[in-house]
Amino acid sequence: MDIMPKWAEVVLVPLISLLLAAALSALVILGIGEDPVAAVKLMVSGALGSTYGWGYTLYYATNFMFTGLAVAIAFHARMFNIGGEGQAMLGGLGVALACLYIPWPHWSLALIGAALGAAAFGAIWAAIPAYLQAKRGSHIVITTIMFNFIAAAVLNYVLVNLMRPAGSMDPATAQFPKTVHLPTLHDLLAPLGISFSKAAPANVSLIVAVLACVFLWVLIWRTRIGYEIRAYGHSESAAKYAGISPVKITMIAMLISGGLAGMMAINNVMGEAERLVLNATEGAGFIGIAVALMGRSHPLGVFLAAILFGFLYQGGAELALWTSIPRELIVVIQALVILFTGALDNMVRLPLEKLFLMLRKGGV
Amino acid sequence: MTLMQKFLGATAAFALSAGAAMAEPALIFDLGGKFDKSFNEAAFNGAQRWADETGGTFREIELQSEAQREQALRRFAEAGANPIITTGFAFATPVEAVAGDYPDTKFVNIDGWMPEIPANVQMISFQEHQGSYLVGMMAAMASKSGTIGFIGGMDIPLIRHFGCGYAQGAKAVNPDINIVANMTGTTPSAWNDPVKGSELTKAQISQGADVVYAAAGGTGVGVLQTAADENILSIGVDSNQNHLHPGKVLTSMLKRVDVAVYNSMKSGNDIATGTSVVLGLAEDGVGVAMDENNAALVDATMKQAVEDARAKIISGDLEVASYYATDSCPALDF
Questions:
Q1: Is A192's Cβ below 8 Å from some Cβ in B?
Q2: Structural domains of chain B sorted by starting position, each given as residue range(s) with its CATH number in brackets
Q3: How many CB atoms lie within 10 A of CB B257?
Q4: In contact, A110 and A99? CB cutoff 8 Å
Q5: N or C: which end of chain B has fewer CB within 10 A?
Q6: What is the H or E stretch that residue B294 is in?
Q7: pTM, rounded to two decimals
Q8: Does B89 touch chain A (CB under 8 A)?
């Protein structure tokens, strides 16, 4: 029987972790002579106080949902996919190729095509480390990390030497054609009579990300392959005994993982920049690890954690814009949240468990 | 739009007062960060000089993500900042996208390129290949081993442009010179990785290089340090870096981003927009740094040769091939 009730597990532990991180951040802000209350107010109003803020928060959150889900599915098979960054970069390449070289008649078809391209490229990039893990026992953490650098080098080469428009100094592809422009939340909500900020980059990919969350939940808890992935994750030897092939599960879990990470590109490359730039992923693949840890590898948890990190990103941008808090400190605040929610989970969990045990004894 | 205003009113009173008072200029630094001892720092120094001289204030932001480029431009424009100065070629596309929405705001971009410049945008570019040509000459003259090094940040056109001018200058002095060229990395951290810069310098020394030119932003700090430690010469970039290791830095390829930023802020709303401004040797936009820190390293013949070449480039008698013009380099393969 669980020591803590479900609600405490899901809500209370992350909440207390967050409060601890916030308290420590406040001390840091105080330490450099700024007002922490004003800073928090600015972050909240900047990220959640307007449709403009929400637009950016949700844009970042969409990225983190994809990469968070990618890490989560690999976690279920007890694999640590640190290569989300590289897989998302290659996914960007897939999106760029699909958008630039195929004349799509409508954005909806382009979205499907680009999403497939992104997922395929991301999955291929994950397939090599997965194969090495499954067949050769090369540790997936090492290989996926190294593949991030290879991906960066590949992208660099392709952008500088192959896909850069003549005359441009910027190592980036040409602008995608207008027909593949994805509708932003402004375009989507306007027919419903809801006015949403025009400037914000959140777009229809958010819906795809939410669908991906639902898909992953169904996959993990309602299908045979999901069961096999979880069984393999809990015990490899037991899974083998039950006739589950480790090679097959490793490959499938990593292909899905890479595909999801790659699909992030429909948001940042197709939805926002509408061209592929060198630094398109900017760390979202790594944030995905924190998101999956915080969300306890559950799609709903990933969804919520992604929004939290989207809030931190957009709130951090507002702090950088309107205060003299240096950006390094904003990274410190973000890091504190990751530290408390991801790494120091037991620090909060164990005392809470004791507390609940005491309460239960007292109750009996 | 209305929500936007509501937000401003609710949270940032000082933003409103800034809009009401005389327009403040804004400076947006590229991802490398403000204190990179090089490109962005030069921009900051120019802005600071303007602030000190006029008593004015300016807004600034160091970016953390690509999506913030357009965001920062729009936020500053909506808060009434004018002119808005951006550093780095990656700003060209966002500026192009945003400029039309704020016709009363002047935008300045340093290093960028766009096919058609909107009416309220000024593009500033530097003839880095000319300055690099001169430091390449000095490197070849100072080298005793006949091998010189080049350490770039990332393998992108801008850095090839630097390396190409450098190689041409070196080959003009010594056609048989051996040029070892390396790039630091493929991720943005390549611009701020002094440790890697140091390793590359050691690798180039082991290949015989005794003068190393760093065109790699903050990474160059490690290059210059290691060159000084290993007792070879180095060449700094963008800002005058001769003072970092007096007597060990041969010279610095100056790219007067500070002057460009200073002039833009000084002109304020009177900036000539809709055009591009090209700053080369003739405009003192690029050059070589000569001061008391490198006086002992630069003899009279070297000085004379550089002066002659400079005059010839300005007069047009000597043309340094630009990597941008042909997307290839006659003197160095990348």
A1: no
A2: 2-126+258-279 (3.40.50.2300), 128-255+298-326 (3.40.50.2300)
A3: 26
A4: yes
A5: N
A6: none
A7: 0.87
A8: yes
**Over its length of 334 residues, how does chain B's per-residue pLDDT go in tens digits?**
444 444 444 444 333 334 434 689 999 998 777 887 778 888 999 999 999 999 999 999 988 788 889 889 999 999 999 999 999 888 988 999 899 999 999 999 998 888 889 999 999 999 999 999 999 999 999 999 999 999 999 998 899 999 999 999 999 999 999 999 999 988 878 888 999 999 999 999 999 999 999 999 889 999 999 999 999 999 999 888 999 999 999 999 999 999 999 999 999 888 888 989 999 999 999 999 999 999 999 999 999 999 999 999 999 999 999 998 888 898 888 7
Given an 8 Å threshold on Cβ–Cβ distance, is B11 in contact with A45? yes
Q: How many CB atoms lie within 10 A of CB A328?
A: 10
Whether A122 contacts A258, CB under 8 Å: yes
Most B CBs within 10 Å: which of A282, A287, A328, A332, as the mutation test of the B interface?
A282
Whose structure tokens read 């010594």? B174
A271 close to A204: Cβ distance less than 8 angstroms: yes
> Contacts of residue B76 in chain A, CB cutoff 8 Å?
321
ipTM associated with this complex: 0.79
CB A271 within 8 A of CB A264: no
Q: Does B67 touch chain A (CB under 8 A)?
A: yes
Pairing of strands B147-154, B233-238: unpaired
Query: Which of A 35-94 lie inside 8 A of B, CB atoms?
Result: 41-42, 45-46, 49-53, 56, 59-60
Q: Which residues of A touch B90 (CB under 8 A)?
A: 170, 172, 277, 279
- By C-alpha distance, the chain B residue nearest A272 is B67
Burial B119-139 (b: 16+ CB within 10 A, else e): ebbbbbbbbbbbbbbbbbbbb
Contacts of B89 (CB under 8 A, 6+ apart): A169, A170, B111, B112, B113, B158
Of residues A56, A3, A24, the one with CA closest to residue A333? A24
